[in-house]
Amino acid sequence: MALNGSNSTRNDNANENNSYTPPNRGNSPKSAKHVPLPLKMLRFCITMVIGAFIFANIKPYEVIATQFLSSFDYNSIASIISSIPILGGLIQFITKFFAFGLGTALWCIFQILELLPLILFGHGRFLNNQIGKHGKAAKYPVSGNDSWETKAAKFLGNSLSTEVMRFLVVMAIGVYVLDFLLILTVYPPVKGNFGDFLYIIQTAQWDKINWVNVLVSFCVLFAVEFLVKLQGVVKQVIEDLA
Predict the structure, then answer these.
(1) Residues 6+ apart with CB under 8 A from 150
(2) What is the pTM of this model?
(3) Phi, psi of 112 (to 5 degrees)
(4) Most buried of 1, 146, 184, 229, CB within 10 angstroms?
(5) Mind listing the pLDDT tens digit for each residue in 58-95?
C-alpha cells in the first residue's frame, strides 16, 4: 500500500510538471488601439485645414499691426535708412517681420479668449467642479424688507460660484464683437467708413453691401472655433470606438 501511494505521488508530481498553464492574457499589455482609417484621414485633414485658416486669419491682424506701426512718423529717419542698399532692405524686412509677429500675437490673444469658453464648457471635470461649487455655495434668501445694498450683496454672494463661467461668457462676447469690428476694417462691407455702413443698413440699400466681404469676415471670425470643435468631436468618436 505504501508503494502504491508513493507511485501515485510521483505520477501526480509528473503530471503537474508536464502540465501547461496558459498565460494570463488579462494582465498582458493592451494591444495598439485600432482607429478606422477614414477617421484618421478626417482628423489629419481637419488639422491641416485649421493650420491653413490660422495662417489666413493672421493676415487681417498683420494689416492692423502694420497700420498701427505706420502711425508713428519717422519719415526722415526712414528715408535715410532706406537709401542705404543693404541696411535699408534689412530694416524693411525686420519691420515687416515685426508687423507679422505683432499681428500674430494680437490674433493669438483674441483667439485664445474666444476658444477658452468653448474648450472649458466641453470639459467634464471643469463643469463638475463648477456645479459642485454652486451646490456647496451658501444661499442667502432675499426678502422684500432688505435694502437694495443688502439685495445686491446677497445676489453677489449667491453668484460667486458661477462668477468664472459668467466672466468667460461675457468676455468671449465682448472679444467677438471687437474682433468682428477689426475684421471689418480689413474686409469692409461697403465703400466708406462704419457710419456709411450703418446708413446703408438703415436705408435698406442692400445692393451696396459687399456680401463677399461679409461672408469672409464671418469665416475669419468663426472658422477656427468650428474646426476646433469638429476636431474635438472626431477625437471623442475615435476614443469611443477604440
Answers:
(1) none
(2) 0.62
(3) -65, -40
(4) 184
(5) 877 888 888 777 766 555 555 666 566 666 667 667 77
